# Entry
Amino acid sequence: TSPEYARFLEDTYDFLSISIRMIWPQLLWSELFYTWNATERSIIRQIQRKIWQQKLLPEDKGKSIILSVGRLSPEKRIDLLMDSIPETAVLIVHGDGLESHKRPLREKAEKTARCYFLPQYLSAKAMRSAYFGCDLFASASDMETNGLTVVEAIACEAPVAVFPAKGHLQVKDGEDGWYVDFENAKMARQQLIDCLRKGQPASLAASS
# Structure
């Protein structure tokens, strides 16, 4: 699932001198990510956004949707995402993890405006719908190897905003997504506003 693991396999085993550059998750090569055409994607986006709108408070309806999906654990630094929500957007956090990790996030979300904490497992189909339905996918993690959720989001044509560290550095700023300094909440809020205003970065816009 990462270039580092690919190099490990290449160094450890003899693959008939084939150079391994990346180990991709099977999910991305499955029909689950590549069966919807443009019309279907538009319909699924509308359905997903309608589902989310039903969960939002009246004052948050119509705002941009920033999505976080994945394992709920300290190294994902979801608390930094919660600190960085612009007034023009809401943050929806989907995922699952140990109760000891979910509890503090749930408590923080309850005290944070425009934050919706939905700690539940998503099937591959539901997760893809979530990617299509959001305006921006965000990850503040500084411990990623490859960052599979970011790769999945890009595969679903979702703009991504990532903290520039380790595996996230594979995202080219302005091409595949945007770099955001989530360690500075004030700066991150403005950067997220800019990301939402810009929409799809260059490579995604060209492929749409």
The chain has a mean pLDDT of 84. The radius of gyration is 17 Å. The beta strands are 64-71, 89-96, 115-118, 136-139, 160-162, 178-179. Residues 38-53 form the longest helix (16 residues).
